[in-house]
């Protein structure tokens, strides 16, 4: 029986991956950081033969031993903040070092198959590409460009480090899954940052819709791709953008209003001049300013063709998110 080692196993995406793995008959060993996360996962999967390893991505201790006996590394763990840090290295170093730490441990444990959760942010900001031209898997974000935020740089450099590692260790086969903003139904109340955006829109905490794109994918599709990639020959050595659609924030707000007229989602778009003005004083607005005048659209066509499916529509993923947020708030 194939055993999969899943890092960051208590995350929004990872919980769906665990469910997909169990449904497909895989054995799983999950890395977590606390007893609380173990209790959380045991509550979700009470009948599963789920093994645990207590590990810290910032420390070397325990990683190689934890992966002994596993056949596949599924590395999902990476920090995802809502706010831009003052020092970009606060995100970059843990993301890069953690990825390399996991991959080195996998090599030492004899693992030859790695699935890495990257992101579309590692794709859509290539400096020498026309800013309004959509991207695909051939594009790479220019990590040191002035319009690239810390999280975007961290995911780009972490994925680059993974590909460099397998280039030096050709016995390991890598696939990266690069989701857009991940929506859909959470498995419990501790959901991800994308759903926090939905919550903020619904509660009126974002009074004006930013004049920006948002690339959508449903978490169920992301999980399916991770698990299907394990044995799919056409997925080996490839990166895949997991993207259903690209929407404007104002369109997202309108969908929420249509679904529930009582929601406080914004009805007007913020003017560009206001974003630029606020960016002079607010760190969060500086990150938004970096996306003005450029599209974050990324094609998901390669994934649909290779995996043989159609992405869940963005509206379905959004409403599933909103319904979950509403139920957990009530």
TrEMBL record:
Organism of origin: Yoonia maricola
Keyword terms: Oxidoreductase
Coiled-coil region: none
Keyword Oxidoreductase listed: yes
Record's protein name: Dihydroflavonol-4-reductase
Family: Belongs to the NAD(P)-dependent epimerase/dehydratase family. Dihydroflavonol-4-reductase subfamily.
Entries under SUPFAM superfamilies matching the protein: NAD(P)-binding Rossmann-fold domains
Pfam family name, one: Epimerase
Domain of life from the UniProt record: Bacteria
Gene Ontology terms, MF aspect: oxidoreductase activity, acting on the CH-OH group of donors, NAD or NADP as acceptor
Annotated NAD-dependent epimerase/dehydratase domain residues: 4-238
Keyword Oxidoreductase tagged: yes
């Amino acid at each position: 029986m194939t055993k999969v080692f899943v890092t960051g196993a208590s995350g929004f995406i990872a919980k769906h991956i665990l469910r997909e793995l169990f449904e497909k008959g895989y054995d799983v060993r999950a890395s977590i950081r606390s007893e609380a996360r173990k209790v959380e996962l045991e509550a979700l999967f009470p009948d599963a033969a789920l093994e645990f390893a207590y590990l810290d991505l910032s420390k070397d201790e325990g990683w190689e031993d934890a992966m002994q006996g596993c056949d596949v590394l599924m590395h999902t763990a990476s920090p995802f903040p809502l706010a831009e840090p003052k020092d970009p290295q606060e995100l970059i170093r843990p993301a890069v070092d953690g990825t390399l730490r996991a991959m080195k441990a996998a090599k030492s444990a004899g693992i030859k198959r790695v699935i890495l959760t990257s992101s579309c942010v590692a794709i859509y900001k290539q400096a020498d590409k026309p800013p309004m031209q959509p991207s695909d898997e051939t594009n790479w974000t220019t990590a040191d460009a002035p319009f690239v935020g810390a999280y975007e740089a961290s995911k780009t450099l972490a994925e680059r480090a993974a590909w460099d590692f397998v280039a030096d260790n050709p016995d390991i086969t890598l696939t990266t899954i690069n989701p857009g903003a991940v929506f859909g139904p959470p498995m419990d109340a501790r959901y991800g940052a994308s759903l926090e955006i939905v919550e903020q829109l619904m509660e009126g905490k974002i009074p004006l819709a930013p004049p920006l794109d948002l690339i959508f994918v449903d978490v169920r599709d992301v999980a399916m791709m991770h698990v299907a990639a394990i044995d799919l020959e056409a997925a080996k050595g490839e990166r895949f953008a997991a993207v259903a659609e690209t929407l404007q924030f104002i369109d997202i707000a309108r969908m929420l209003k249509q679904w529930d007229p009582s929601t406080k989602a914004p009805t007007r778009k913020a003017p560009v001049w206001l974003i630029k003005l606020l960016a002079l004083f607010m760190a969060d607005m500086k990150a938004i300013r970096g996306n003005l005048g450029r599209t974050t659209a990324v094609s998901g066509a390669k994934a649909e063709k290779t995996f043989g499916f159609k992405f869940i529509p963005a509206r379905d993923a959004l409403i599933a998110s909103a319904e979950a947020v509403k139920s957990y708030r009530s």
